[in-house]
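hey so i finally got around to running the thing on that chain from the lab meeting. sorry it took forever, my laptop kept dying and i had to restart like 3 times. anyway pasting the input first so we r on the same page abt which one it is
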Amino acid sequence: MKLFTILQEAIHQHSDRNAFFINDSFYSYTDLAKSISKIRNSIRLNTDKSEKIIGLIANDDLETYAAILALWFEGKAYVPLSTDTPKERNASIIQQAGITRMLDSSEKPFIPEFKTIETKNIPESEIDLKFENIADDELAYMLFTSGTTGVPKGVPITYSNVEGFVNAFFALEIEMDASDKCLQMFDLTFDLSVMSYLIPLLRGACVYTIPKNKIKFNYIAELLDEHHLTLALMLPSMIHYLRPYFDEIDCPSMKYSLFCGEALPLDVTQEWSNCIPNAKIMNVYGPTEDTIFCTHYTYKRNEVNKASNGLLSIGQAMQGTYTIITDENNEPVKSGEKGQLCLGGVQLTPGYWKNEEK
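ok and heres what got predicted. didnt touch it at all, straight out
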């Protein structure tokens, strides 16, 4: 699969550059390659080919990100489990996904009753970033959404879904290279995290994460000031928190500022644009079921923007995504009429996990 070829080449080509900045420490692409290799070696020794879906304790460290890539190079999928989630929810996810094995970088296994590969305690092995031919319809990851019932629903995302997103993302005329510094502010149980770590790694850039014991908006302000980030995907609520400090924020290095996950107010966007005078600001939208995000709208500086009730438009479909607005009879509405947004295309999940009705 082309996606893994690009990833493999980026890790080799940028071996001496920084891949991650985690908890105030830098880790190089060589560090990443070593961690991937030892973890995938352990996966081979401790799992068989029938074990396709592996639980991943979602910590903020190099081993956790390396574990994701190790699973992908082995043609397996990860299901992230948060240490902050109630035990009952994690138990439901484990049961629904059929997880029998965990990858965990914690000091002690977070769920000790499970067979666990403790990724911090694996001996070094030779660097191995080769990958087998992986079918497009194999799963890359599965996230669980609560929906309106509170019962987690599994959303399986395939490798072709991910590749479709990557192609659509770069079709937005976003130019990146190894000099870029990119924010990753999301818990790994939230699908916006996938874009935030994967896109930079494909270009040999550096991913800046937020330690779990830090206040997010404070730490983001520090990163902007001290490390001169060039790309950031954020929730709009982050700039609401930063708003009292806009007079102190000056980040001319920012090239792309993306927002997703919540409605984006036009007035705050206008104020934020002064803090990042050289950045392209984009409002993007998409549910977990359509792989990260699937529509886009570019904010226009000093021009009239499309907005409704003070909220910026979510724009139009990205490459490979189809959108249609329908009425209660599933018929397309006329221009200007309200309806339900329906999505289709290469990024769309094959369907809820073991839940044909939904």
